[in-house]
Amino acid sequence: MTIASEFTTENVSAQGSHIGSPVWLDLYDFTREFTTENVFSSEDVLRDWITSIGKENGFVIIIKSSERMAKNRSPRMRFACERGGKYRPFINKAKDKGGNVKENGKEGKVKKIGRVTGTKKCECPFELRCIKGLEGWTVSVVNGNHNHPPAKQLEGHAYPARLSSEQSTMLVDMCVSSLSSPREILSLIKGKDEFNVSSMKTIYNARYKHGFKDRAGRSQMQYLLAKLQEYGYIEFNRKDDNDCLKDLFWSHPTSGDMLRSFPRVLLMDCTYKTNRYKFPLLQIVGITSTERTFSAAFAFIDGEKVENYTWVLENLKRMMDPDALPCVIVTDRELALHAWDSLVYSPTISLYEQALCTMKREFVLYPDAIKYVETSWLGPYRQKFVSAWTNNVMHFGNLTSNRVESEHAKLKSHISNCQANFSAAWAKMHDLVKLQITDIKGSFEKSLNCWQHQFRIPIFDHLRGAASQTAMGLMLPEIKKIDDMVVEDKVDCGCPIRRTHGLPCAHEIAPFKNRSEPIPLSLINDHWKMLSFENVKMMGQFWT
């Protein structure tokens, strides 16, 4: 490399205008580095050699022009420095219906983009000419001078940061799976290529380009509806008076099978910050016989109003067997007030009344608060959350919305971006449901064929492989009660597990244990005997 000086009277300003103040520019001569007598067998080999020599010396060399299909002429290419040429401001020519250029409603003017921009162009004169002969490509140096010093690092330069074809394929595969964030994609690429100089912007641009191609000109909502149809989802939507989508309900086809297999208890709750449009996401989940949570359905709704919930529940009902509708639907009314735990968890009505009297004595100085609790909560809602009443409902142990809120947390960790569009958010939910299905099938298989040692006792002989291990685990404390206390009749036992879980309680198990006989399968609720959902299908398309 040699350095020379050249006198010029032009200087390019940041805005692309020319100021006629004379300056001296240093020229960096790299003619020798790019001079070669090698003949390159293909265009790819030629391009790789030129770009690698440029990188070694701190310059980014790009294709300036190419003539591959010229008549009566050999194919040829011109390479130049990325800083060659002049800055050309981008203009957005907004036109009216007649084709006239407009700016802010005025004809004959150009509308400029209001962005703060810059340029790396400095009219660098460097240029190579390459011609394809009979034996291959040859290189000649037209001008080996650069009018700017070599770059100290290539990070921040768009051209060398571009992804290779292999890296682009990897990115597309990871985008399709929807399980990797841009940061994880970039880390994986850099882990496989230590010389990679791509940035997060490179990944975002590549993802956007892939998404734009995949959408094929469709809007976000059109693309999402097409995907729901492609994967066989059950989908309902409704629009407002302006023909804009108001609510969207969907359910994975396998989720529908699970819903019809385990319909008795459902939990539902709304969450926020899952999409850039600020639509609440309503998630409805159910519980399998192995205590696994599955997402029965999702819905983007325009508000948490009665009509929105009614519309969602009507669509959910259409997916279900009319003879097997939910017995319990758990929602969130923010009842978790620890100051009155003893009141809420009173197992009998008499204990509830005692706890209520105790609370009134302790808070005698706050009559307004006591009145609010009694009139707003205990009066109209005590049957929905006080144990004295909920212990008479078969809820399978689900008394709060914690289970669905846990699913919200998993979902948000998958989405990892509160500014995601509808289709991107759906893709994350789709992948999450697939993981749920795999986990649930695995839990079924364990109950069928892989039993815990604590369940390998004679009293469970008829249940192993026919009922879930979760059910047997819930029955173990009842079996231990028989040894610790006398439970010969229903009054002494209380039978809470029979009412809340549909499982035999201590007084039902005692006769079989005393006779050394196994517990019969007929005493187990059908919920716990369901260890597959493959054969549960909906008769017809929908029930009405």
From TrEMBL:
<dbReference type="InterPro" id="IPR018289">
    <property type="entry name" value="MULE_transposase_dom"/>
</dbReference>
<dbReference type="Pfam" id="PF10551">
    <property type="entry name" value="MULE"/>
</dbReference>
<protein>
    <recommendedName>
        <fullName>MULE transposase domain-containing protein</fullName>
    </recommendedName>
</protein>
<dbReference type="InterPro" id="IPR052579">
    <property type="entry name" value="Zinc_finger_SWIM"/>
</dbReference>
<feature type="domain" description="MULE transposase">
    <location>
        <begin position="265"/>
        <end position="339"/>
    </location>
</feature>
